[in-house]
Amino acid sequence: MDISTALQFLLLPAGALAIAGFARRQGWSAPLLLVVAGLVASFVPGMPAYELDPQIVLSVFLPPMLYSAALDSSYLRLRDVKQVVGLLAVGLVLFTTVVIGLVAHALIPGLPLAAAFALGAIVAPTDAVSAIAVGRKLGLPRKSITILVGEGLFNDATALTAYRVAVAAAVAGTTADLLSAGGEFLYSAGTGIVIGLVIAYAVGILLRRLSDSLIANGISLLVPYGAYVAAEAVHASGVISVVIAGIYLGHEMSRTSYGTRILSGAVWKVADLVLESIVFALIGLQVRPIVMGLAEKDFARVGIYAGVVFLLAVVLRALWVPITVYLPTLLRRVRERHGVPAWRNVALTSWAGMRGVVSLAAAFGLPEDFPQRDLLLFLTFAVVIGTLIVQGLSFPWLIKKLGVSNDAERYSDDLSEAAAQQAAAAAALARLDELIADGVLDVHEEVVQQLRSRAERTALRAWERLGGGTGLDGAETPSTVYRRLRREMLTAEREVFVRLRDERRIDDEVLHRVMQELDFEEATLERS
Predict the structure, then answer these.
(1) Which residues of 35-73 are buried (b: 16+ CB within 10 A; e: fewer)?
(2) What is the DSSP string of 166-200?
(3) HSE (CB half, 13 Å, CA atoms) of 279?
(4) Nearest to 356 by CA among 17, 92, 35, 13
(5) Alpha-carbon gap, residue 484 to 480, rounded angstroms
(6) Taking the CA atoms of the chain, what radius of gyration do you get in angstroms?
(7) CB contact set of 216 (below 8 Å; sequence gap of 6+)
(8) What's the rounded Cα separation, in Å, for the pair 315 and 317?
(9) Does the first or last residue of the chain, that is N or C, have fewer Cβ atoms within 10 Å of its Cβ?
(10) CB 379 within 8 A of CB 306
């Protein structure tokens, strides 16, 4: 690889991370800014041609992104909303595939029905990365976030299965066999679930026994690829296999060592940032090759096709979500058990229909001789860009306009955490008393008092959090004062250690060791 090729190779991730960093600093949506920046850059003279290789996206980028999202999800919360997630991840995807397929077949001259269904399957799955990020930042209720996460995790598998069936039928020049398609979906999903569970169970046993956090996280990095490849090797759903493995291991993560958990959070946050930045930049960079492929088309007519498909993608979701959410509540049993969802939350879920890289990867994966391939590529791109810009830009405004917040949930979390901290502190103090009474520990009274004070301070800090860090008179609580002063002390300590290192009075290895201890302490203060 020569220098110019290497520079081109590094230009994409470096530029994507720079734009993502700027967006994060300004409080903007990084995915949206990356797409727009890539779109503009694609027309800059001399810009290298970055082609979206569908195999690389689906087998290299997608598994770790799905796995990370699954690790961060809650199995218990997903189980509570499994009916809604199923109706969105399976029902809505198939509904969108069929309706868009029928309309596209009727609207576009010469487009076979199977090829039209392939288009429907391509644009059906949503990519809620930006919606989830914005929702968490602006306080979208936890249940709504869980539904969007669950839908995003599972809808790709449904869409890609429908896509494979439609493409095979279009290439063969036949009509898709619904019975065969249903059987293929059941096999693909069922086998993917089994493979994901088997791999996750084996890895879970291994991670619980490993005390080396580096080796444990190294193994964790291999899990999404192993689950994906194992499932795809037997023609099952690699997506579902990865998702199931991630949900299972995320649920079991609390049983691993503390070092594994601390490092895991950092590892996957960095992986998410890098992969998502590159992927969304790639989406924007595909504009030029897609537009060039339509050089001989009537752009006015193509624009009408794109507008119709985009509107269908938005409207079908806006119709499906309220119907599937409210229809079950007509049954008294369902209404008494789950209640009636607030219309504001349903409206936000209906609007969170942004499409992403899976749709583009599937479109680019169409065979070269596929009927009207260039047109389908452009229609897919129009839907992806349209939803990211229109829905993505308006989603934060809609959250604020509807006045949706999770203040009640946060207060309830703080209250339950305070009660749990109180119970944990009581158990810790009781155990300390048992050890002293049994004569197991021969310690000074000063040490015992320090341990008691630490346990009591932890419980007190949780109760103080309910007041936002201030007392009844508006003054800082003792824990808040302690954290503020201790941070200043840590800064002074670091300056001394760095100065002594620079004066060659301590070695860099000593500096790294003490810095790590101070960093962990400051991280604990920040968490508090």
Answers:
(1) bbbbbebbeeeeeeebebebeebbbebbbbbbbbbbbbb
(2) HHHHHHHTS---HHHHHHHHHHHHHHHHHHHHHHH
(3) 28
(4) 35
(5) 6
(6) 27
(7) 207, 210, 256, 257, 259, 260, 263, 264
(8) 5
(9) N
(10) yes
CA atoms within 13 A on the CB side of 132: 18
**Residue 316 contacts by C-beta under 8 Å, 6 or more apart in sequence?**
92, 95, 96, 99, 100
Distance CA 343, CA 346 (A): 5
Distance between alpha carbon 345 and the CA centroid of its chain, in Å? 20
For residue 112, give both structure tokens: 């076979």
3-state secondary structure 466-481: CCCCECCCCCECHHHH
Residue 208 in contact with residue 147, Cβ under 8 Å? no
Specify whether the CB–CB gap between 413 and 57 falls below 8 A: no
Alpha-carbon distance of 365 to 373, in angstroms, equals 10
In terms of Cα–Cα distance, which of 67, 85, 87 is closest to 77? 85
| Structure tokens that stand for 348 in this block | 């936000």
pTM strictly above 0.70? yes
| pLDDT tens, per residue, the chain with 528 residues | 567 667 777 888 899 999 999 998 888 878 888 988 988 888 887 777 777 788 888 888 889 999 998 998 888 888 888 888 899 999 999 999 999 999 999 999 989 998 999 999 999 999 877 678 777 777 788 888 888 888 988 998 899 888 988 888 888 766 656 667 678 888 988 999 999 999 999 999 999 998 888 999 999 999 999 999 999 999 998 999 999 999 999 988 888 888 888 888 889 999 989 998 998 888 888 877 787 777 667 788 889 999 999 999 999 999 999 988 887 777 777 666 767 788 888 999 999 889 988 898 898 888 888 888 889 999 998 999 899 889 888 988 898 888 887 777 776 776 776 777 777 778 887 887 777 776 655 666 777 777 777 777 777 766 666 665 555 555 666 777 777 888 888 888 888 888 888 888 888 888 888 888 888 878 777 665
Distance between CA atoms of residues 136 and 270, nearest Å? 18
* Cα–Cα nearest to 312, from 364, 374, 382: 382
